[in-house]
């Protein structure tokens, strides 16, 4: 008999409906039994609308009274680490919205609690979990595409002044970073999931137009362990919005163009000249049943991980690889020096703080009063 896991939703803001759909996608494996929000009116309205039986405004009280199996955390970024740890301490597994934490030091605190409690905290990185992405990875891992050589990872989004008017946004201490940490993290994690381990980053970042502490654009050049090289752009300034991945293998180019989610129809394959590789074309077209890049796809795999008592993807060392890349982008951009993987260790100011402490002066001269 399969177990039904009792879940709580922490935060009932704009992303809450994605979590509702994810719970529904488990077809009874997960039951949402409570919701928490500091705004009593909002959480009560949410519970009334959805039929969730218990509404709380006190997170710790909810943990003690409900004792959930799963905590779905959808609060502002600055609260993620403490809430994830508190939930694991009472025996819950955690699926937390990005960014999972604000530094490698916080990531390592989460990992220590995972090891001690036997529970896990996974970051919501739903771009990994589409069936079409699994299909691509199988082709790549089997060698049918040849070696990866060149990559492009662009998150070209647009966030206006009204977006940054929310009090916690645009500040290092509460949003934890700009589009590198808060927007492009999804595509970069997806990119790493396909490309594998990275070795070196050279980056730049600036606040070109928005009245915020954090960057509004960053660019990075990345060298991977497999020898491939890639460029990454994260922007909050791009009116024509697009999320774009390009992977140039020896035998083909694979492209993915979307905005906030994708299915197999968003992918494109271009064979290397003379473009007569019928076997590769046929293998590419043999997609499995299409499951998009949804919260539900990730939650279903998360439930299977719980059934088996195994570490989920996008937790532990897997999540740390992504957080380390983002930290390296910030350190390289602020110090104007390349950063090698594994060199940001305890004692390095960037280990404890994405921006190295203080508020770095990255505002463009054209964006200063």
Describe the model.
By secondary structure, this protein is an alpha/beta fold. The chain has 2 domains: 5-127 and 296-310, NAD(P)-binding Rossmann-like Domain (Rossmann fold); 129-291 and 322-352, Dihydrodipicolinate Reductase, domain 2. It contains 14 helices and 14 strands. It has helices at residues 16-25, 40-50, 59-66, 80-89, 104-117, 131-141, 161-164, 172-175, 179-182, 185-195, 278-285, 295-308, 316-335, 349-352; strands at 5-10, 30-36, 54-56, 70-73, 93-96, 121-123, 148-158, 198-206, 217-224, 229-235, 237-249, 252-258, 267-271, 339-340. It has an 8-stranded mixed β-sheet, with helices on one face. A 6-stranded parallel β-sheet has the order 3-2-1-4-5-6, sandwiched between helices. Strand 5, helix 5 and strand 6 (121-123) form a beta-alpha-beta unit. Helix 10 crosses helix 13 (316-335). The longest helix has 20 residues, at 316-335. The protein is globular. The model has no long low-confidence stretch (mean pLDDT 95).
CATH structural architecture of the largest domain? 2-Layer Sandwich
The tally of structural domains comes to: 2
Text of the CATH class of the largest domain: Alpha Beta
The termini sit apart by 65 Å
CATH superfamily of the largest domain: Dihydrodipicolinate Reductase, domain 2
Main pleated-sheet profile = 8 strands, mixed
Strand residue content: 15-25%
Instruction: Give me the Rg, rounded.
Output: 21 Å
- Element pattern in H and E: EHEHEHEHEHEHEHHHHEEEEEEHHHEH
């Amino acid at each position: 008999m399969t177990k039904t896991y009792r879940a709580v939703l922490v935060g009932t803001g704009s992303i809450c409906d994605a979590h509702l759909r994810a719970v529904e996608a488990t077809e009874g494996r997960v039951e949402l039994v409570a919701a928490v929000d500091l705004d009593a009116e909002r959480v009560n309205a949410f519970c009334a609308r959805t039929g969730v039986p218990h509404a709380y405004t006190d997170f710790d009280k909810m943990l003690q009274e409900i004792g959930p199996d799963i905590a779905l955390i959808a609060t502002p970024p600055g609260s993620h680490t403490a809430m994830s740890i508190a939930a694991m301490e009472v025996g819950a597994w955690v699926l937390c919205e990005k960014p999972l934490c604000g530094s490698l030091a916080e990531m390592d605190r989460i990992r220590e609690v995972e090891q001690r409690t036997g529970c896990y905290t996974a970051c919501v990185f739903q771009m990994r979990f589409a069936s079409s992405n699994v299909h691509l990875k199988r082709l790549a891992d089997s060698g049918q595409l040849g070696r990866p050589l060149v990559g492009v990872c662009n998150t070209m989004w647009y966030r206006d002044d009204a977006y940054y008017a929310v009090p916690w946004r645009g500040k290092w201490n509460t949003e934890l970073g700009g589009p590198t940490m808060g927007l492009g993290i999804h595509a970069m994690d997806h990119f790493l999931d396909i490309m594998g381990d990275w070795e070196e980053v050279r980056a730049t970042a600036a606040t070109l137009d928005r009245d915020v502490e954090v960057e509004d654009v960053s660019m990075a050049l990345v060298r991977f362990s497999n020898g491939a090289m890639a460029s990454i752009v994260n922007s909050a300034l791009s009116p024509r919005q697009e999320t774009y991945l390009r992977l140039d293998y020896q035998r083909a180019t694979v492209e993915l163009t979307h905005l906030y989610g994708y299915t197999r129809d968003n992918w494109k394959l271009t064979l290397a000249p003379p473009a007569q590789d019928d076997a590769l074309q046929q293998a590419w077209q043999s997609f499995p049943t299409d499951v998009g890049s949804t919260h539900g796809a990730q939650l279903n795999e998360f439930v299977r991980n719980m059934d088996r008592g195994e570490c989920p993807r996008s937790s532990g060392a897997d999540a740390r690889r992504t957080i380390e890349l983002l930290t390296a982008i910030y350190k390289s951009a602020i110090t104007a020096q390349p950063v090698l993987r594994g060199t940001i260790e305890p004692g390095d100011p960037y280990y404890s703080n994405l921006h190295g402490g203080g508020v770095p002066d990255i505002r463009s001269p054209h964006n200063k009063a």
